[in-house]
Amino acid sequence: GQIYVASTAINYNEQQQYNLTISVVDDGHPDAMSDSGNVTINVLNANDPPFFYDIESSSVKYIDENSPADTPLTGLNGSFVLADDDDILHFNDILTYSISRNDANAFQINAFTGSISVAAKARLDFETRQEYSISVMVTDLEGLFDVIDVRIYVLNVNEEPSLRYDYLSLPENSEVGTSLSVLPKVSDPDV
Asked: If you average pLDDT over residues 44-59, what whole number do you get?
């Protein structure tokens, strides 16, 4: 007889060996004869892809508008997207992180830690745009990977208003209390 795999749930990381008892019975007359024997099946380890976990916490991040380059994002698990690989110990696997889809090239990621931060040329302005979306990829040494979409919300911060006057002129010998007819130009990015 042939032995077949009956389940797709065979996983080396959970069980490395199966012990089976195989029985055989003939259809002899007048009495059937039988025998049995033990078979050991060793499961060989294969490289499994890395995977993101704690997806709800990893997929939502926040950043204050006007944050300078290299400022880490914030979220329930800080600036990190969390990934693991069941084969790290068995294959000495190393995970690397990259941004596979970078909205406006506004963000960067530490390839070894998975920490997301503001990119050098990013101009994050709440009054212009409040949300970005990027895709982060984690890859193992054999090229197996997983991808997670991350939403990044830009938070509003109070910005300084500006006040300026155009060139003012005043006739000499003006009387005390003379009103200047030019009003200042005031602007506030938050208004």
From this structure: 92
